[in-house]
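This is your field. Please look over both lines of this record.
***
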Amino acid sequence: MTGGRSVQPLKRGLIWLAAALALLVAVGVAVILLLRESLAVLDGRAQLPGLTSAVEIERDANGVPTVIGTSRTDLARALGFLHAQERYFQMDLLRRAAAGELSALLGPATLDADRRLRVHRFRAVAQAALAGAPPEARALLDAYAQGVNAGVNALGSRPPEYWLLGTLPEPWRTEDSLLVVHAMFLQLQEPDGHSQIQRGLLRAALPEPAVRFIYAQAADWDSTLDASKSAAPEPPGAADYDLRSLEPASIEVPAPSLRHGGESGSNGWAIAGRHSASGAALLASDMHLDLRVPSTWYRARLIEHGEADLNVTGVTLPGAPTIVAGSNGRLAWGFTNSYGDFEDVVVLVPGTHPDEYLTAHGPETLRSATEVIRVRGAPSVNLTVLESSFGPVIDHDAQGRALALAWTAQDPAAINLNLIGLERAASVTAALPVAATAGIPAQNLMLADRDGHVGWTIAGLIPVRHGAPDRGPMLSTDPAAGLGPPVAENQRPRVIDPPDGWVWTANNRVIGGDGLAILGDGGYDRGTRATQIHADLVANAAPMRPRDSLAIQLDDRARFLERWRALLSGILDDAAIANHPQRRALRDLLGTWTQHAATDDAAYRAVRAFRTEVETRAFSMLIAPARSQAPAFRFSVPPSFEGPLWTLVTERPPHLLVRRFRDWREFLLVAADAVATVPQQCTTLARCTWGRVNTLNMVHPLSAALPVIGFALDMPHEELPGDNDMPRVQGPLLGASERMDVAPGQEADGLFEMPGGQSGHFLSPYYRAGHAAWAHGRPEPFLPGPPQHHLTLVP
């Protein structure tokens, strides 16, 4: 009897558990069914008001669409429909980030970010740019916006992110497409004038010879199109700057606020027809950007059958109606960030009353505007923005003077749709006037045409500059303060059909002389990638095909760090390792060096870490007086600091070493000891491989809000080869946002890779399609494959 009574509660418990599980499964199924309603329409017919005629959309096995219509306006409308159906949340974040409107969607957590960006008043700038747009551009932008809103409305349910946030998507406005361009300005340039402010702080605290040395270029890694060379770094003499006179406590390293610059970049090159197997010029483009889910780009092929036929394939930016980089059968083009200097920090010299500041032309008065920041779940916040004739006030200096930022992104003339002209450009020379008026962040533009010609120029607005190319903040009373009018087209730097048949860029200084004076120095990369790319190009004796070009993009040889490996090996001599088992283990590890940034190479990780330790300590030591004067400022290591750094560790000037160290050997051994200590995540140095550090962390912006299932929204956390100072740029959060190798007219032989997939919907078969090919360097065709789905959009 006792046993029977104990069984009954157990049975009841099992029944309740089964019922709860059944309910949980039912809820899960209902949620999945609801979310599936928000998947893009792939087949059949759908209405798209405003079309002049039907548009056909074919999708291949990766979800890449071919969009066929009879006018470019219809194609823009259809592209807006596609973007909205598969990427609306991404588009929404881009426009809100640029406009400083994230808090209206995400709540108080993003309020500080909105405050920082709202000072630029980019929505007002976008509205002004739209008001000045020519009728044909306005028609395209209007059609695209109408297509976006139709695409969202055609979904059976709101996109998943809006269910999670408990809100509805707001309509797309025409000016939002220009805000998406502003979003790229924010990613590619500095919205806070950090580099110029830092240069000003260093000049105020250090003697000028020390500042010149710190900002010298890495001359031995120069790789320019005009063969110009930077001056070798010249250390300041002991009479100018003697670190041994400083108190040891003032140079403790590394500084907690120290940050590193130069972590991003892009590669691009064009190969003349005489070096190409097809006879057409060959373009390679891999634009390195932050790696997020979904990917930055959305692939598309646009075909127009009409008065002016168009057949262009490439990548689009969700939120905008144009092909950003691609090939049209006659011309192929791609970009890398130029890192020219297109902004000025201006110190507003106070006048006689609080709102007055002095200029070279007399006193002026600050204007004020009130920006209302909506905050989801909280009251709106009013932000007063002060504006000068130079630009908005972004900060104040140590004396309390206002700092204004003059930036091309704040000029409505710098934001437009003119890039669309490249879709129809038939040659390198035909692309040059398009580049001169393109409303994008100033970029290196690589060009290759069907007739074998190649070229480089800058696309985007270039302001006339006054003064030195490495200037810091200027006083508002200086006649040279602020940005001048756009540089005339015939004065813009360009290189067309150079004698050796190559043009290449990798965020390095591309040109010297007058060209450099026009572009300025906004923080060029150190040229290590450019040097390796150029050597790879020259080494290809046979006529090159797209796969040969891709092999250069995937080159992960550690040429840059080889001399650092030799330096580390040299200081770990018998005397150094005696009675130091950790140093001995580190020296033994160096014997496994593969000369590649390979995932299983522990020696590569160690050498890279050694260089970083040396760089951080040396830079922090050199700028010690500035750090003590501005303790809250986040100083950045200049990307070109390799030149001064290598000079220090090879010439080893005693006066540039603080008293804490007897000599530079001891300084280097301290850095080596930091590397010889086994990191917490590893059991031994040999097991602490590069892959353990270089693991892809490509996540959805909302996955962290779903602790149990959020991982399902992210791309696989794979160990990947490559690093910043070689063609195969790869980090956990940054890498090639696409790889493209194509000769115009030979698109069927072209190659393409992209992280992530076409769709931003985690239930879509295209959410991860193609990602594995990118991660493992397995190329896929540049053109979309055979159609798997067919959708007709009708008026």
Notes: Residues 1-36 form one domain. The longest strand covers residues 378-387. DSSP finds 23 helices and 30 strands in the chain.
